[in-house]
Design brief:
With 173 residues, the protein is an all-alpha fold. It has seven helices and no strands. Helix 3 (49-60) crosses helix 7. The radius of gyration is 18 Å and the shape is globular. The two termini are 24 Å apart.
């Protein structure tokens, strides 16, 4: 009896943290703040960490981030990064809807398939941003997108790990 009183609580007695349903959205908004880091470069090579974490949460647990959360989180990203208002809203919502569609069509997914899906979505994100920048009068060679695309694809496993660690903490495991 004494040993039980002094020991850790049983895992069955622990439950989700308070406000556990908002942890994914808050973590994506905090990850979008990485764009505010004081790094000065001529061309951006820092990955869109908010987008990577959004994809990681959606691929890890499709039920914690509804598709409609992509719009307000994209607006937060637009306000923090200085991109045209609505660009991340459209890209992030499209990515969430595509992932919902793929969830209905696929029977199984493993880690490599998820990494490939994330790579396709990152390429689509960067290409759309490049196209919109060109329409707004800031033409840049497409080859300049190769470093941020490559870095984003290589950093995705860290985003997936962060999402899974936050999910374990959120659920009290």
């Amino acid at each position: 009896m004494v040993r039980f009183a002094l020991g850790r609580p049983n895992t069955l007695e622990r439950g989700p943290k308070a406000l556990a349903r908002f942890v994914p959205a808050i973590s994506v908004a905090v990850a979008a703040c990485f764009a505010l880091m004081p790094i000065v470069v001529q061309l951006g090579w820092i990955p869109d960490v908010g987008f990577l974490l959004l994809i990681a949460w959606r691929l890890l647990r499709g039920d914690v981030i509804p598709a409609w959360w992509a719009a307000p989180l994209g607006l937060v990203n637009d306000l923090l990064t200085g991109t045209p208002i609505g660009l991340s809203v459209v890209i992030w919502t499209t990515a969430m809807l595509l992932l919902d569609l793929l969830d209905r069509r696929t029977m199984w997914r493993d880690y490599w398939v998820e990494w490939g899906l994330a790579a396709v979505l990152v390429v689509g994100n960067e290409t759309t941003r490049w196209w919109i920048d060109g329409l707004m009068g800031a033409p840049v060679a497409y080859a300049s997108l190769l470093p941020p695309i490559t870095l984003s694809i290589l950093v995705f496993p860290l985003a997936a790990w962060a999402a899974s660690a936050l999910d374990r903490w959120r659920l009290g495991r």
